[in-house]
Amino acid sequence: MDHAASASQHDDRLNVAPSRWRDLLALTKPGIIGGNLIATLGGYFLAAHGTFDWVTFASVMMGIALVIASGCACNNVIDRDIDALMARTRHRPLAKGRISITQALGISALLGVAGVVCLALGTNGLTVALAVIGWGVYVGVYSLYMKRHSEYGTLVGSLSGAMPPVVGYCAVTGQFDSGAFMLLVIFCLWQMPHSYAIAIFRYADYRRASIPVLPVVHGIKRAKHHILGYIVAFIPASLALVLASQAGAGYLCVALTMGGYWLYLALCGYRLDDDVRWAKKVFGVSILTITAMSLVMVLEAMVPMWV
């Protein structure tokens, strides 16, 4: 074999390894993990009230990240057929057959067990139970059945999506109190307009894959009504943390400003003709809103630690 051919084969092997790692990473949906970790941070520091424990903090952040990664890997296995039909997801590793079902399930199991062990060693039984319930709802109820069979799948999925900040909160408190309940309600309400906005600007994908989301089943106009209604409910729910003295003035300003602008955008949807462009704005502001609210929870809690 000449040197040129040998070098070519060596380069091919080097290219395969990074591609393989990229596929494995994509299986866990890093973007979803990142967003949920910010929410977990908010929940943790909201409960911490200026105190900080490295073991608890590291355990809950690492543990919930691994549990979420496990759930996302499982979701990729379950959704591989509909992923292949949707423009946004058709290049996912399982949809393209670059990773086998057995490999994906093995990775999911490994990540899930590691996450539960991490939570069990550094937090408390309630935190472990909430993380497992969130995983079960996302994989067992939402992905396996509700997503494909009911327009209420989004509502069920919002419960698992709201679990990370509650997990962060309960890792500190060890109990499901009024603060944990308010976080659950806030993040559930936030998930709905966020998800409906995605369903509007990805309408063709969802319809092609026969996924019964609200805009596909009842039309975009009705989805706009629901988006507006959920945002109207979200704003006072988010402010309840201030009324309960769980959050301070900084959080109040951010929640009012971002929530108010999100509401303004929802109202704009009734007079704009480009639904796709509008829905993308609603989606983008939803991300900014919940991220800003979570981060200000962190900052308000950290101020007493600095002074």
From TrEMBL:
Under catalytic activity, the entry for this protein gives: heme b + (2E,6E)-farnesyl diphosphate + H2O = Fe(II)-heme o + diphosphate
Which parts form a coiled-coil structure per UniProt? Answer: none
Q: How does it sit in the membrane?
A: Multi-pass membrane protein
Alphabetical list of InterPro entries matching this protein: Protohaem_IX_farnesylTrfase, UbiA_prenyltransferase, UbiA_prenylTrfase_CS, UbiA_sf
Q: Which Gene3D superfamilies match?
A: UbiA prenyltransferase
Q: Give the signal peptide, or none.
A: none
> Which spans are transmembrane here?
30-48, 54-78, 99-122, 128-145, 152-174, 180-204, 225-243, 249-270, 282-306
Just give the chief location class.
membrane
Protein's pathway:
Porphyrin-containing compound metabolism; heme O biosynthesis; heme O from protoheme: step 1/1
Per UniProt, subcellular location reads as: Cell membrane; Membrane
Q: Does the keyword Transmembrane apply?
A: yes
CDD domains in UniProt: PT_UbiA_Cox10
Q: Which family does it belong to?
A: Belongs to the UbiA prenyltransferase family. Protoheme IX farnesyltransferase subfamily.
Function according to Swiss-Prot or TrEMBL: Converts heme B (protoheme IX) to heme O by substitution of the vinyl group on carbon 2 of heme B porphyrin ring with a hydroxyethyl farnesyl side group.
Q: State the remark under miscellaneous.
A: Carbon 2 of the heme B porphyrin ring is defined according to the Fischer nomenclature.
Q: What is this protein called?
A: Protoheme IX farnesyltransferase
Instruction: Record the organism.
Output: Vreelandella lutescens
